[in-house]
Specification:
InterPro entries: Asp/Glu-ADT_sf_sub_c, GatC. This is Aspartyl/glutamyl-tRNA(Asn/Gln) amidotransferase subunit C. It catalyses: L-aspartyl-tRNA(Asn) + L-glutamine + ATP + H2O = L-asparaginyl-tRNA(Asn) + L-glutamate + ADP + phosphate + 2 H(+); L-glutamyl-tRNA(Gln) + L-glutamine + ATP + H2O = L-glutaminyl-tRNA(Gln) + L-glutamate + ADP + phosphate + H(+). Pfam families: GatC. By secondary structure, the protein is mostly helical. It has a domain of 37 residues: Histone, subunit A, CATH 1.10.20. It is built from three helices and two strands, in the order αααββ. Strands 1-2 form a two-stranded antiparallel ribbon. The two termini are 56 Å apart.
Length: 95
């Protein structure tokens, strides 16, 4: 796919980009090259290929989903300036 000058200008307008007139042919060539690569990738038969979350075969280290902290809610609510029905009361900051 090859982009015309007018298409590059239209894309730049939609993206709110100011292009130098002298650079438009270079952008047309580079964008056409990118679109060509996308066309090439779309033509690859990926039937039967499992989607991947990462290009390398790595696994995220996970920790067990277990509570490690003690429940100190009562302790924190005792030292809070104002508490009502288990909720912290704070001054209104937005009218």
């Amino acid at each position: 796919m090859s982009l015309e000058r007018s298409e590059v200008e239209s894309i730049a307008h939609l993206a709110r980009l100011a292009l130098d007139e002298a650079d438009i042919p270079r952008y047309a060539t580079e964008l056409s090259s990118i679109l060509g690569l996308v066309e090439q990738m779309n033509s690859v038969d990926t039937h039967g290929v499992a989607p991947m979350a990462h290009p390398q075969d790595v696994h995220q280290r996970l920790r067990p989903d277990a509570v490690t902290e003690t429940d100190r809610r009562e302790q924190f609510q005792r030292i809070a300036p104002q508490v009502e029905n288990g909720l912290y009361l704070v001054p209104k900051v937005i009218e």
